[in-house]
Amino acid sequence: MRWAKIEWQGAVSYGIVEGDRIALVEGGLFDVGQRTGRTAPLNEVKFHVPLIPRTFYAAGMNYVDHVIEQAKIAGREPNIPAKPDIGYRANNALIAHNEAIVKPKDSTEKFQYEGELVAIIGKQVKHVSEADALDSVFGYTIGNDVSERTWQNSDRTLWRAKNTDTFKPMGPWIETDVDLEPMRTTVRLNGREVISFDTNNMLFGVARYISAMSQYLTLYPGDVIWMGTEGRAENMVPGDVCEIEIDGIGSLSNPIVAED
Amino acid sequence: MRWAKIEWQGAVSYGIVEGDRIALVEGGLFDVGQRTGRTAPLNEVKFHVPLIPRTFYAAGMNYVDHVIEQAKIAGREPNIPAKPDIGYRANNALIAHNEAIVKPKDSTEKFQYEGELVAIIGKQVKHVSEADALDSVFGYTIGNDVSERTWQNSDRTLWRAKNTDTFKPMGPWIETDVDLEPMRTTVRLNGREVISFDTNNMLFGVARYISAMSQYLTLYPGDVIWMGTEGRAENMVPGDVCEIEIDGIGSLSNPIVAED
Predict the structure, then answer these.
(1) How confident is the model at residue A240 (pLDDT cuts 50, 70, 90)?
(2) Which of A49, A96, A163, B63 has the greatest count of CB atoms below 10 A from its CB?
(3) CATH classification of B1-47, choosing from 1.25.40.890, 2.30.30.370, 2.40.50.140, 3.40.50.300?
(4) Do A126 and B88 touch (CB under 8 A)?
């Protein structure tokens, strides 16, 4: 089932995506009510971020080629993570499907996309085994971990390199029925494919991360975990459109604009 | 004015601390209603975390001696930050005044307190000047940035070193009328003073941080910024009580217990 948060005819609500229409429902994602009986055409609604994270987790370095390529950019030896150490992103940076990624005035040309699988936690867990970990996942969506590489290498933290306003497109919706194994993630810039990779070919998969995290922290419904990206990205410039497609979920598309 | 979130006679509400009593009010911190007319004795209420952060920011290395001492522990040269690069903590780890800090079973003996000033944002700001930045602060509270130093040095991120459940005591309340300049922060372990420092003797003060952050990100009401700590901490063991006092705000006290 596909859950979207949308605005239509002046009202914001959750809905269930069915073909090219969305059936509106009462209530929120975790306290969903009845269908209202109204449906909206998908191509007429404004998408919202499907869920504002309770805590916004991000795996960071979680695909081998990406670790190697980022080390090259930074001019150091690659350091393949030996265990799943989770990181954080910030809610201020979230934007929805079709909203504009704003390239800051002082950004260098190294302004890049990162296509990522996003797991949405639906159940409170602590000390969960890897075998049971996926039971805590409500569904999956798509994230673009937009990154300014110069700041990523110069700053002490990732605050502005990855959490400047509009740097975290997430959506378009949450898909609850997903088979991770055959998935591919494909990123397109202005319609041209720039990378395609096996989504689940991670250093540490979703279940491994959730189980490891839950040995020390409680995961709550509404927490989200961005699972990292593969390869080396190209630069984006204002006027570009960046699209991230993950099989079985959908496609997240955002234009790039220059800061006023 | 001192705003506390408390539980008394089975109900949770905000209240205004006045002497040894608290006057209960209707509504939340940013949509406060009328006084209910009821007051509770301070020594009979259960404190809650005064505010669940919208985004939980933390300055990290923000006092000179602390940067030097942490570098010694890690066995490297100190690297004094040249600019305010903000970091993040996570809400799962928050506990209130008087609640127990749980030392994990596999924690090493390097399990330590960090007494910190916490600024609570009350106004949405972007591109704010340093001169105007403090107008966005609703008030201040106290934080204990509990840290497991072995994990802090071994892990790729601070996720478990600083964000394990119960590692972030915050409270007891939010003080809106504060003069930063003469403040001192004093940490006591079982009543014995272990450090006392000028709270505002930061590498980058509250106004500088807020202004710098707001050049890239929007700050929202309910965001919190932990401002870092000074010096080298001692270890805490189960049975200890750690108390952090900041002049003009109050005192945050938490017992340490062992994980079951």
Answers:
(1) very high
(2) A163
(3) 2.30.30.370
(4) no
